[in-house]
Amino acid sequence: xxxxxxxxxxxxxxxxxxxxxxxxxxxxxxxxxxxxxxxxxxxxxxxxxxxxxxxxxxxxxxxxxxxxxxxxxxxxxxxxxxxxxxxxxxxxxxxxxxxxxxxxxxxxxxxxxxxxxxxxxxxxxxxxxxxxxxxxxxxxxxxxxxxxxxxxxxxxxxxxxxxxxxxxxxxxxxxxxxxxxxxxxxxxxxxxxxxxxxxxxxxxxxxxxxxxxxxxxxxxxxxxxxxxxxxxxxxxxxxxxxxxxxxxxxxxxxxxxxxxxxxxxxxxxxxxxxxxxxxxxxxxxxxxxxxxxxxxxxxxxxxxxxxxxxxxxxxxxxxxxxxxxxxxxxxxxxxxxxxxxxxxxxxxxxxxxxxxxxxxxxxxxxxxxxxxxxxxxxxxxxxxxxxxxxxxxxxxxxxxxxxxxxxxxxxxxxxxxxxxxxxxxxxxxxxxxxxxxxxxxxxxxxxxxxxxxxxxxxxxxxxxxxxxxxxxxxxxxxxxxxxxxxxxxxxxxxxxxxxxxxxxxxxxxxxxxxxxxxxxxxxxxxxxxxxxxxxxxxxxxxxxxxxxxxxxxxxxxxxxxxxxxxxxxxxxxxxxxxxxxxxxxxxxxxxxxxxxxxxxxxxxxxxxxxxxxxxxxxxxxxxxxxxxxxxxxxxxxxxxxxxxxxxxxxxxxxxxxxxxxxxxxxxxxxxxxxxxxxxxxxxxxxxxxxxxxxxxxxxxxxxxxxxxxxxxxxxxxxxxxxx
Length: 723
Known about the structure:
Largest sheet: 8 strands, mixed
Number of strands: 17
Strand content: 5-15%
Radius of gyration: 34 Å
């Protein structure tokens, strides 16, 4: 037979075996699913990279082309500030044309009038209360002026009374060639952080899926490969046979993944659980790379399927090899990876700590199943001797099966180990941001909005404090906050009517505030005292304090202690005090500006962790089913000889429950050490590991029960055959 004819015959034989051999259907669907997941994982990374690049380019297009201050060549004035709504940060840009033909910012069809504001559609729709905070709303920002459709962004043209040219820069137009510090990408997961988290939480499970799928039903295929070798098949011939067996499911998996990516080219796709929209133009920009990925990844999967088959050499025995005789050189890498991750992270430069930690964690967790398999295999002979001495058939059979090799055990526990490692690290990393968010939320809930802090870095020499107080309405007091950095005290300056409205006497000299009937002010006094700062009440002119103080700070509170509307106070402050103001819950020496970046990171980690764990669950299910079917066929003769199906449950306990439970404990212990460089509290780490470890033990029990049931069902239909 010619070379081409032989290859076609081997491909046909492989395709036939892919649907008729032992565990062939499980392997077929495993390869299909693994290829789909691998292609989607690579495409997801490419789409994310294209999205990051597209956002940076659109942000650069709206950054001003700044001219030298005072040169008189600028056609417009420009100033960017940051605001927060519902724990999400966004940019507010103040603009003012200096010439009649001044270039428009991207996304605007005309210049807004003085005192008018233009909001992005997403901000206006999600938070209607923000629409009037910066002035009269007119229109919305077009897509050309936004990083993505879901971005929060505001253009404001201040009124003539509040315009502060000294704080703004002069510009001749828009568009720069570098990435500016403006836009939604600053307050989201950055490209570097995303890539390392994606590698650890999605890339590792996808790679594990390919490895497990390639070795599903390995026992029967290894016997078939040994037969082909005995018949004189060369390495190349065996490779063609393996390709014929895997090409159909791999091709179908690549096709399914390609179809799953198509919607990204048709419409904008909001990602679940995060404030992020995959913009259609960014997806189309990555079309070439995505096409390459949909072809290259299935090819790589086929290559892995071929390379992961055992190599049989002429004259070499095909009998199983004891684990002691195998050169498990990868086991020596595990302690090096563990030590390097824990110690190397602290020794690495600050900018490289996250890459070192992510890479070390991935390598350590990937090597751990092999270590667990070797340890369990080493205990196999002792388990077999104990079973023989006590007359326990299940223990005897399990010990001998485990002693036959570490690799089947490693494949069995790999999914559980990786799932626990990823889930625990994800939960511990999330706890870092959750703790910060919970502290901010608790403080804000404790203080409420009955006491607000109004601050600005703009020129306040023309501030109309009287009009500000009048606009807030009767029953609302305004106090100036004056802090002496040389003293642990803070003076609150207000007029006598304000102090009397708060139920306090009008102080002739600065008097320490000890007790007050105003609940919000009492909480502020308590908060400041907890950090060693005393509040003092003083009588004075608030308007004079605002106009003469650099970066003034005001305290706004209602006489009756009711909650105030931050949106209303912000709008009033922008109208009467300064071009740009900031209103937050009063925290005296600081502000509670929210935890937007931490919450964004927490949401991304939760999304990636869920995606990775879902992949691992599928991996564990497929790998376990294959092992159960094999166990049922191997133990079929035993059940016939003993006449008792309970042997399946006994074997399942010792060969499934015990190894998986040991793997869970090992994964928890290793994860504890690997996460040491994270600045999470011991309580948070212990809580996360306890929850994940408990879930892992429940999973081990479920796998043991499921394995016994499946093996019993498979063994019940076992018949002797010449295999």
